[in-house]
Amino acid sequence: MFTLDYEAAIPRLVVAIVVLWLTWKLVAFFKPRNQHTLRSVAIVVLGDIGRSPRMMYHAESFADNDFFTDLIGYGGSEPIPSLLNRPRVRIHYLLEPPKWLRALPFIVSAPIKITLQIIYVFSELFTIPNPPEFILVQNPPSIPTLAIVWTVARMRGSKVIIDWHNTGYTILAMRFLGNTRHPLVLVAKWFERTFGRAAYAHLFVTNAMREFLVKQWDLQGLKVVLHDRPPRRFHQTTPQGVHDLFAVKLQKSLSAQPSLKGFLPASDPPYSSAFTATNASLSDIRISNDSPSPPTSVIDPIYSQVQLTLLREDRPALLVSSTSWTPDEDFSILLVALREYESRAAAADKKLPKILVVLTGKGPLRDKYMSEVGELQKKWKWVRCISMWLEAEDYPVLLGSADLGICLHTSSSALDLPMKVVDMFGCGLPVCALNFKCLHELVKNGKNGLIFENASEFAEQMETLLTGFPNCPRLIELRAYLQPTSERPTSPPHHLASSPEPPEDIWESWDDNWARFVRPLILKDVRRDGA
Ligand SMILES: *[C@@H]1O[C@H](CO)[C@@H](O)[C@H](O)[C@H]1NC(C)=O
Ligand SMILES: *[C@@H]1O[C@H](CO)[C@@H](O)[C@H](O)[C@H]1NC(C)=O
Q1: Per-residue pLDDT tens for 91-131?
Q2: CATH code of 129's domain
Q3: Which of 157, 189, 370, 409 gets the highest tally of CB atoms within 10 A of its CB?
Q4: Those residues with Cβ within 8 angstroms of residue 485's Cβ, 6 or more apart along the chain or in another chain
């Protein structure tokens, strides 16, 4: 006899509801974009968002152009504050792969990690309510993001933009001692070409990268070189800013450096530092008249009277380099060059300044080189080299306070450029940089910096640039080239939008550069009702 079994019916009902809900979700998911959807972009980076400056700047720029912007990536470090409190930007953090995976060998852990990433990235892209109009993806890592983005774009009718920072397979090859014929590397290369070849648009960090990829893989779609540029908050530091950094923030860590005892000019923090003084402080400090920008007059609660902070004439020249202390930067070049500068300065009869070299960053080779330089500089009178760890917010302030940047980066692929030089230029800081294949795309020799081939050439350049410091015409000339375009008599960038190449002598901000090269790509395709 048939009886209604309520106990069994309830689970069935639940299953039915879940199935209905899933079906509805699936239908919504596959529904093509409608014409009235707001402009939107999903930006995918399989890395720490806070450590992916370029992807954060992309997100900012899309949001500035009224796009709803979903930024998908890992947490870890804090993203730039301007992204956090922006109404059109949503940040989606991916779940980290479990820690125990790291204990397994790469061959075993990699597939598990990739499977998890596929699930996580898919579900993030899946839960964005309206299908994004564009999906911008950073490459590398290529696996599995390129395939996921490719698939989702097909299902949801989005256009893919690939931002090529490098090639993933060459980075993988470095794990296998540079062997590009390793079976895994060949698979990775096949994958990257298959899913990376065709896209709505490709962005490249250098011309060299563009030429290489177009030739190697015959890329399909729009192709645009978008050089890295610093964000708008990077700029030269005012004398007051230099003072706050050295007389207050870094005062403790500087005075804790034994090698600086007796090297820096006498100072009385917080009233003066080795680099700055106020007109109310030590009367015998000579104030320099080469202050980079008009000095700011402030009312400071500490002194409760009007202060004028200025750079000291007897300050040492400040040189900076940031590094991750890896073998692709040859610090022996720096050591040899500093030794040579020491002997040149000793022979120069006070025409050359003392120099303080600050190396920022952490990494495996730091202790080795720092103890080497520590030994050397015991005999030096003119040169000191210290390493320092700075908070993220102090880093651009230090760059903006310095007189000369140093870059010893050599690129593994010779297709990408050092971000630290971009940051330095953003802070109005000229550089001396070790040459490599595509460096000329960034450093224009004799205009915004000098390029050297070896240590003795570098020492010679320091001498040329710093003679007569702080009144050294060559260095001031290089600095002038890096003034923001808005402060120079050139026409505003949107008037230049039609010219394919920026005029040689313009150093644009990220915004202007983005407006020139990326905005035309995304506006090309405006959908207008009834149009
Ligand atoms: C420092 O200079 C400012 C601006 O010239 C002036 O107003 C102020 O009185 C000076 N302070 C001292 C202590 O000389
Ligand atoms: C360093 O480079 C310069 C310029 O390329 C060259 O003239 C010089 O001979 C080089 N010096 C050494 C020691 O290699």
Answers
A1: 999 999 888 988 999 889 989 999 999 999 999 998 898 89
A2: 3.40.50.2000
A3: 409
A4: 493, 506, 507, 508, 509, 512
What's the gap in Å between 308 CA and the centre of ligand 1? 6
Do 210 and 285 belong to one domain? no
Report which of 331, 297, 298, 295 is spatially closest to residue 312, judged by C-alpha positions. 295
Probe residue for ligand 1, chosen from 272, 276, 279 as the CB with the greatest number of ligand atoms within 8 Å: 279
Q: Strands 89-93, 355-360: parallel, antiparallel or unpaired by DSSP?
A: unpaired
Whether 447 contacts 481, CB under 8 Å? yes
Q: Which residues pair with 357 in a beta bridge?
A: 319, 385
Q: Which two tokens stand for residue 12?
A: 């069935």
Task: Looking at the structure, tell me whether residues 389 and 459 fall in a common domain.
Answer: yes
CA of 460 to the centre of ligand 2 (A): 11
Identify each DSSP E strand in 26-131 by its residue range: 40-48, 68-74, 89-93
Q: Which residues pair with 306 in a beta bridge?
A: 299
CA of 411 to the centre of ligand 2 (A): 21
Q: Which two tokens stand for residue 440?
A: 């000329």
| 25 within some domain | no
What are the tens digits of pLDDT across the range 323-373? Answer: 888 877 888 999 999 999 999 999 988 899 999 999 998 888 899 999 999
Of the candidates 355, 383, 504, 483, the one whose C-alpha atom is nearest the C-alpha of residue 427 is: 483
State the number of CA atoms in the 13 A half-sphere of 352 facing the CB: 23
Residue with tokens 């040459």, as numbered in its chain? 435
